[in-house]
Design goal:
By secondary structure, the chain is of the alpha/beta class. It contains eleven helices and twelve strands. The chain has a six-stranded parallel beta sheet with strand order 2-1-3-4-5-6, sandwiched between helices. Helix 1 crosses helix 11 and helix 6 packs across helix 10.
Length: 334
């Protein structure tokens, strides 16, 4: 076991935007709050930092393509943000992701950490991979700030996320429109951008109640959630879904599929603040869950365990399992 804390953290991720980028930024803030110097760099640059990769005094946290640096690294935690999906990513990329995770588990200087029990189950049971720990992602600090302004009227059903096929927003819109018809004055806000935006705007047509807001900064997302009655999402295979927690933290009820990593966030609220619909995404099932969610009261959840500082501390607990030389010996599977 390592007896010394790292003198530096190196975080290498795949891209600055999206969930992985948000994860890297929040984790950077957490380690900074703990007083440990942090350097962030893109995945493509990791192999140019051989000295840092081999330095057992530097903890490396590697995501996406940076995981390929694991075989030559010491004291590295490789983060699986989910499991690969050939339907949406194609078989070449799926095999590349699995290969990267396999390299991590075969490397003496690396641990494989997964962001949800749901994703860990798939990696273990379907792909036969060793998972060394499950650590949930941190929430952005703006969602931890207390609400200072007077309560505002909640007027919307809101989706937040990337607009691509896996998110199934095209399956949500018809059910949302049904519920808007039943609730005069209610609106729908679609927050995010992506390759399906134009197609989704065509589905919405000239319905002025449905607004596409594009990608927003975290504090603007928070402000929209504070004015929303329901947050809705429709990816039955969501790896974790930190935005579910962000929505609950701002007093939204949640409507979501009855599968995915989001079920781990606040299972005690299922049936009160969280309402489930069929993983088949049937229109009637989605509409029914939205109606129940609209009738729910404010269901805020505590966020202390998801703060950047707390999650950074959990990564340091995993780091303590490395030897002084930066190697890791996996325990027998339980």
């Amino acid at each position: 076991m390592s007896s010394t804390a790292p003198h530096k953290i190196l975080i290498a991720d795949g891209r600055p935007e999206g969930g992985v980028g948000s994860f890297a930024e929040a984790l950077r803030l957490g380690f900074t709050e703990l007083g440990i110097p942090v350097e962030s760099l893109p995945a493509a640059a990791i192999l140019c930092r051989l000295g840092s990769l081999r330095d057992p005094g530097v903890l490396k946290i590697l995501s996406v393509g940076a995981v390929f640096g694991a075989p030559i690294a010491r004291r590295s935690i490789c983060v699986a943000h989910g499991f690969p999906c050939a339907q949406h990513q194609g078989w070449p990329r799926t095999l590349a992701i699995l290969g990267a995770y396999k390299l991590a588990t075969a490397s003496p200087g690396a641990q494989l950490v997964v962001v949800s029990e749901y994703s860990a189950l798939h990696l273990r049971a379907i792909f036969g991979l060793r998972v060394d720990a499950v650590i949930h992602n941190p929430v952005h600090p703006v969602f931890l700030e207390a609400t200072r302004e007077a309560a505002t009227e909640r007027v919307a059903i809101t989706f937040v996320g990337r607009l691509h096929h896996a998110k199934n927003v095209h399956r949500l819109l018809p059910a949302i429109r049904n519920v808007l018809d039943e609730n005069p004055g209610l609106r729908a806000w679609i927050v995010g951008d992506g390759p399906m935006r134009l197609a989704l705007e065509r589905i919405a047509g000239d319905d002025k109640r449905i607004e596409f807001l594009g990608a927003l900064a975290p504090h603007h997302v928070r402000d929209r959630l504070r004015r929303s009655r329901v947050f809705v999402t429709a990816n039955p295979a969501e790896h974790f879904g930190i935005v579910y927690l962000e929505a609950l933290s701002q007093g939204c009820a949640v409507a979501m599929p009855c599968s995915g990593g989001g079920l781990e966030i606040a299972p005690q609220l299922i049936g009160s603040g969280i309402h489930l619909f069929s993983a088949s995404l049937a229109r009637d099932s989605i509409a029914s869950a939205l109606r129940l969610a609209l009738a729910a009261g404010d269901r805020r959840v505590p966020l202390e365990a998801y703060s950047p500082r707390a999650v950074a501390g959990t990564y340091l607990s995993a780091d303590a399992r490395f030897s002084a030389e930066g190697t890791f010996h996996a325990e027998e599977s339980q």
